[in-house]
Amino acid sequence: MITYDLAAGRRLSAPPQVRYTDRVEEWAILCTGRDLRPAVSWRATVATARKIDPATIIAETDTGITATENTVLVPLDVFFAPFRNAVATAEKGRDLWFALWGKGADGKEAEYIEFQFTGFPAIDPPGEPPKQLPIRPTTTVNGLSGAVTLADADGVPLPASDGVIPLNAAAVGLENVENILDNLTATAAPTATADSAAGYAVGSRWIDVAHGKSYTCIKAEAAAAVWTEGGGGTVIDWDYSQVTWPAAVDAARGRVRNLDATLSELIFAEVQDITGFRAMVVGTDPVVTGDIVIVPVVASDIDFTDAEELPAMVVPVGLSLAWIERELPVAKKFLKFRRDYADARDTLHDGGGTPLTAIITKLGVR
Prior knowledge:
The chain is built from 1 helix and 27 strands. By secondary structure, the protein is mostly beta strands. It folds into 3 domains: 119 residues, Immunoglobulin-like (Sandwich); 50 residues, no CATH class; 130 residues, Sandwich (Jelly Rolls), CATH 2.60.120.
């Protein structure tokens, strides 16, 4: 007899012990604390953990469960493969969870009982193969309920191992889509050994963030790979002769441009007809990091009489390089970066609220 306090929601008697067996054991659960609520149907479940996850369920039954005024009789059936596997190596037993769910006449939960017990393996297990758990209804991506079967393009069900279905490109109909490896955080140019043996293929991209250059693989032969510089725009150094203010000098990075409270705008003279830009941003303080807000402004003349502000860009700034990139809807000749340090999203400030310096070291245009 198992005693359970419905009001407190806990088991009062000692935890039951259950061995893996093909014999159905009848549990009598005596309920105290309050009256047992009436239910039109019951379901008993055994799980390895107390959480909502069908993968933890190792035994269950929804037949033969009866209830009187204060007692529930449960034919506990643990002759299931998941139960056997869960306790197979638990020489001293394994803590398991038992849950009993009663459904009311309105289709909703009427009663619920749960407690822990101990499951043990069998030294001499039954010879017959154990049962598999029934498939539970599952909500699918189209909102309908029912069992889900994954199949290939020919309708053949995909094989599963311990409830896991391994997927590859062919299994989901993407066998004709190339899986191309890119390196977007390199610190040097690619060499001939950045080849097919390393996972690269024709079309792979390589971004050298340390030197502001990009490369595209045009040949991936082993030990003889060929990469071309460019592939979407040439990254160039700042042309400081075209900047309205003198360049700053950073001990580690040479001539750079600062964005801070004093110099909050960077203006370029006629660079070229640009349709996009890419810039490298980095911080100066080894301790303080945060975001800066950059508002790109484009125009057709140096006075910016037809200035057009583009959407603001929030850039994380630290000691690691960060890139910003934007395509322009119409080609323009003049470009300006304005730091909006009054924007609440601009958090690269000191303790007193003064904006800290962010460095722009490279500008790429195309």
